[in-house]
Amino acid sequence: MVVPTHDRRALLERKLRALEAERVDFEVIVVADGCSDGTERFLARYEPPYGFSWLTTPGKHAAFARNQGARVARGAVLLFSDDDVIPRPGWVAANLALHKAPMRVGLSREALPDHLSEGWTLKVVRGWWNVVSRSLSVPAALFWEVGGYDASFSSYGGEDPDLALRLKAAGAVFELLPEVLVEHWDEGFLDHLEAKAGSAGAAHVRVWRKHPRREVAFALGVHPLSLALKRALLSTAAKPFWDDAHYRYERAYAAAARRALAEGAGPTR
Description:
With 269 residues, the protein is of the alpha/beta class. It has helices spanning 9-18, 39-45, 62-72, 91-98, 140-145, 159-169, 193-210, 214-220, 224-233, 244-262; strands spanning 2-5, 27-33, 51-57, 77-80, 85-87, 104-111, 136-139, 173-184.
């Protein structure tokens, strides 16, 4: 398992201790990416019952950190998971069991902890466009066959759908694991909602440019027709029909996608 982390020592410890409940053989590789909050001191003294190692990277964002962790992983299956994702018992075992069949990519159901659930819900993953590295398992050979993460995606968003599209092109089968659940403890998401939405909107235009097919743009919601529809659906008059968090996120996402498209002609295929 590869876990990138940046200055979230308390959440990382919560995650690692939750993994102590697993009853299968696995290893965890933590990649401390530019940490300055005591994370490395904690990692140096942590002694879990599972295989464990850690390394540092100089703050180059999660895609780069995940690749670095994957390079030292020894298992045939790579399980990527972020530092703010807390698994329920049996999560690792369920992912490993999935990979008894070839060419599988495992995705998990997500929930928010009760204190974060008001005003925001998480989607159930149903296709490549919702693949997220909060919980993603993939055969190591397949991951490297498609080139791993594109580390040039160095801000929030983009690297996950880009990887998913390359896995899909290689013949991967995406499967949602209905029997397992992870909790996403993104404590500051609502505080930074517009910034993250804007970064994702711009990054997904870039994904479309890299994979210039019309269905990619529609799936990611960055095709000009999609954005025109969103402009109407996100008008001030329509605001009462949305909950506040989704309204703020979708407006910021669409605005950033429109700006990114205006900076250069988008694909037409």
